[in-house]
Structure formats: structure tokens, C-alpha cells
Specification:
Blueprint: E1 2-7, E2 29-33, E3 46-51, E4 57-62, E5 73-78, E6 84-90, E7 105-111, E8 119-120, E9 137-144, E10 151-157, H1 158-163, E11 171-176, E12 197-200, E13 218-223, E14 229-230, E15 236-237, E16 239-248, E17 254-263, E18 290-293, E19 309-310, E20 317-322, E21 328-333, E22 341-342, E23 355-356, E24 362-367, E25 370-375, E26 381-383, E27 393-399, E28 405-414, E29 417-428
Antiparallel strand pairs: 1-29, 2-3, 3-4, 5-6, 6-7, 7-8, 9-10, 10-11, 11-12, 13-16, 14-15, 16-17, 17-18, 19-20, 20-21, 21-22, 23-24, 24-25, 25-26, 27-28, 28-29
Length: 429
């Protein structure tokens, strides 16, 4: 394996990559937002793309009336099949009294060939009577399915959190095409229509029983496979999502475990009816969805925040956990359940999100402030960058669609300050 590293951006502002799907389908462009810190979505106003060959930069979207309170944009990712990106967009009326928040954001798409023309994907409706297919809060970390048709996301409900006496906790949802949702607009700018139909996909319990499979919150999901996975009976499940769910052990201690949601290819009309919730009840999960628990660990999933990722065939769900030395490593488990397998044996803990290569043979991640690639079959890891700790690497390492490039973020200091820049590693196998 031969490695060539290139610094791709130089501007005196942030260039924040999302945790996956950063490359355009033809690998010509990388998409990012202009945060200089992961916490700054609310005060960030633009989405850009950078050419992977020339390093030329194009702005493709900028918010209107951006302030420190919002609207804010961030966490942009490319569709795997077309030149469309999706990103978080705060609610347009954001101000000091209604700032950007977890329950005040939505998914916006941009065709990079038609910049500055936002397409609102998930409808939002926070006033009764609520609308099936519209949500009542904020969606986040949108992830395209392998065919580029569906989107998954995490969700916080504004109605339950702000207007109801009942608490609401983060969960996982899905958007599907073919069911455009119309919502009446009003002067508040809180409500808007959407091009896709949205629903909650993970079943939560308001009061999870200790020692049970009941979930308190659901988070940090990933689509299983490019086209699903093969069940134990050798039939095929075309669409499925793996997610982390917080449960409680017999002593009442919370821990994260892995769960799988199996989705139908087509939803029945009855399954999508009456799911919008009320002012006192959250949106409901369509009854066509099945959910099951995969892992039963002693201490739960331990390590830095990360999203679940799978090999392209869907047969290995990757997740981070501590090994018997207490070092955070990459592990894998089948979507059909069974035992977990340790996939990496690095000396220093994996620092954050990881991704599998398009052929499923390798995983890339940050460890000891550098990029590592692990051969999944052998468990052998190779350090592919060589940097000291003066220039901090953060976030995820993402693969190009051809598998011949990876990209990641690193802070670089110059005379004007310290800024998050994008680096590209070209690989010759």
C-alpha cells in the first residue's frame, strides 16, 4: 500500500467534515460545513464543496439572516447516487428568543448544480392538528441509504419537550420518498412542507424496566449494508437500520446496547396513518416495523461517540468498545446476532467514528492523533499518516466511493489562528 497525503483546504475558517458520505458519487467533490468546532452548527451559515483534484472551493448554500442564534447549518453528506447533498438546517425564524436547538432543525437538500436553492425534505408541523408524515421537532445527522432513496436520522421532539408535561428523549427516524407532505405555512415560520414522508422508527419506553430490552433513548444509527443483509434463514432483508439504545441493567445502571430495525420495502397505507402523535403523546412507530436487540454486554458499549457502520454486504455491524485491556477497539457482530468479534488490536484507543471501505475489506479511523487502516480479515493495522500532537486530528475518517482516497480533519495553526482543515490521503493498493 502506497500513501500520498495532501492538505486540501487553506481558508482561515473551519472546514468541518461529516462522519460519513463526504465524497460525491464520482469522488470529484468533498462536502463540508464551515464550523471550526463541532458545537457551532447554530452559528454556522454556509455549506461548501472542495474539488479533490484541484482544491478549488465552491459555496453551495448560505443561510439568510445568520446570527449566533441561528438558523445554522452543518453535518453535510452526499447522496451515493447523485450530486445532491443533505445537511442540518436550523428553523428559519431563529433569534435570541428562539435559537437553534436539537428540537429546532430540519433536513435541507441542495443539488450542487443548482446552488442556493434549498429543498426541505422533512415537513415540520408543531401546531395541532398534527400531520402524518410531518415531524414536530428537529432531525439530525441525516444518512442516505445505499440506493440514495431513503434517509435515516436522529430526532428530538419540540412538542413533547417544550409544550407537554411528558418528557421526550432522542430517537431514530426515517424519511421515504413518494409521499410529499403539505403543511400550512403561517407567520411564525415554525411549520413547513417537505418532499419526503417522515416517521419515527425506534420504539422507546417512557419508563424502561430494569433488566429488560426496553429502550430509554435511541441514537447514532447506520443503514445495514448497501442493500440490506441476509437473514439466518437465507432470505434477504432489503432495508434495515442498526442503532444504539440505552437500556438499564438489573441494578438500574444505564448502558448502550445494539439494536436492529427491519423495515418493509413498501409501507401499507394503514401503517402510515395515525402516527403523528398528540400534544401529550409522541409520534408513533408504524406497525410494519420490527425491532430486536443484538447485544447483551456486561457494561454496555464503551468508547467515544460513534455511529454504527456496516460492511457493504451488511453482514458485519461495526461498533467501538473496550477490549480486555481497557483500550477502545473496533468490534463486529452479525445483524442476525451471535457473538461479537474484535476487529482491531491497536496500541492506543480509537479516538472517534470509523468507516469501512467500499469493498468491506478495511476500516479507517483515528488513533494516537493519526489515521490508521485495518485489514478486517487479519486484524493488522497500518498507520498511514505521521503527525505530531501539535496539529490535532479530530472526527471521522471517510472513504471515497472507489476506495482509493480517505479524508479527515485536522486543526492547523497559522498567523491568523487555528482552523479546521481537510486532508486527503490517496492510496495505491
Amino acid at each position: 500500500m502506497q500513501i500520498t497525503e495532501q492538505r486540501l483546504t487553506n481558508g482561515n475558517y473551519g472546514h468541518c467534515l461529516h462522519n460519513t458520505q463526504c465524497f460525491s458519487p464520482n469522488d470529484e467533490w468533498l462536502v463540508y460545513d464551515t464550523r471550526n468546532d463541532d458545537t457551532q452548527i447554530g452559528s454556522t451559515g454556509s455549506i461548501e464543496i472542495v474539488n479533490t483534484r484541484s482544491g478549488s472551493v465552491k459555496e453551495i448554500y448560505r443561510t439568510i439572516k445568520q446570527s449566533v442564534f441561528g438558523p445554522g447549518v452543518g453535518a453535510a453528506s452526499f447522496s451515493p447516487v447523485c450530486d445532491t447533498v443533505v445537511f442540518i438546517h436550523g428553523i428559519s425564524n431563529a433569534d435570541q428568543t428562539r435559537p437553534y436547538a436539537f428540537n429546532r432543525r430540519t433536513a435541507v437538500a441542495i443539488d450542487i448544480n443548482k446552488p442556493y436553492e434549498p429543498i426541505f425534505l422533512d415537513a415540520r408541523h408543531i401546531t395541532e392538528p398534527f400531520t402524518p408524515g410531518a415531524l414536530r421537532g428537529g432531525t439530525h445527522a441525516h444518512l442516505w441509504s445505499g440506493d440514495g432513496q431513503w434517509l435515516s436520522f436522529t430526532y428530538n421532539d419540540y412538542v413533547m419537550e417544550e409544550l407537554s408535561t411528558q418528557p421526550f428523549k432522542r430517537t431514530v427516524g426515517v424519511m421515504i420518498p413518494g409521499y410529499e407532505v403539505k403543511v400550512d405555512h403561517d407567520h411564525t415560520m415554525e411549520n413547513h412542507s417537505g418532499k419526503m414522508f417522515s416517521f419515527i422508527a425506534a420504539n422507546l419506553s417512557p419508563s424502561p424496566q430494569w433488566g429488560s430490552d426496553e429502550i430509554d433513548i435511541a441514537f447514532d444509527e447506520g443503514w445495514i449494508g448497501v442493500n440490506g443483509y441476509t437473514r439466518a434463514d437465507q432470505t434477504h432483508q432489503n432495508r434495515a437500520i442498526a442503532f444504539q439504545g440505552k437500556v438499564y441493567d438489573l441494578n438500574g445502571k444505564s448502558k448502550a446496547e445494539l439494536f436492529v430495525i427491519d423495515l418493509p420495502d413498501v409501507f401499507t397505507k394503514s401503517a402510515l396513518s395515525g402516527i403523528q402523535g398528540t400534544i401529550h403523546t409522541p409520534p408513533q412507530v408504524p406497525h410494519d416495523i420490527t425491532q430486536r436487540r443484538l447485544t447483551y454486554t456486561t457494561n454496555g458499549i464503551e468508547g467515544p461517540r460513534h455511529w454504527l457502520r456496516t460492511t457493504p454486504d451488511g453482514m458485519v455491524i461495526g461498533f467501538l468498545n473496550k477490549d480486555h485491556h481497557g483500550i477502545v477497539q473496533l468490534f463486529g457482530i452479525s445483524p442476525n446476532g451471535g457473538s461479537t468479534k474484535q476487529l482491531t488490536y491497536v496500541e492506543n484507543p480509537i479516538q472517534g467514528p470509523f468507516n469501512f471501505s467500499p469493498d468491506g475489506k478495511y476500516a479507517a479511523f483515528l488513533s494516537n492523533n493519526n489515521v490508521f487502516i485495518t485489514d478486517i480479515a487479519t486484524g493488522k493495522s497500518e498507520q498511514v499518516t505521521s503527525h505530531d500532537h501539535a496539529s490535532k486530528a479530530i472526527g471521522s475518517v471517510s472513504w471515497s466511493n472507489k476506495g482509493d482516497m480517505i479524508t479527515y480533519n485536522r486543526y492547523i495553526t497559522n498567523a491568523h489562528g487555528t482552523y479546521l482543515q481537510i486532508f486527503l490521503v490517496r492510496i495505491s493498493w
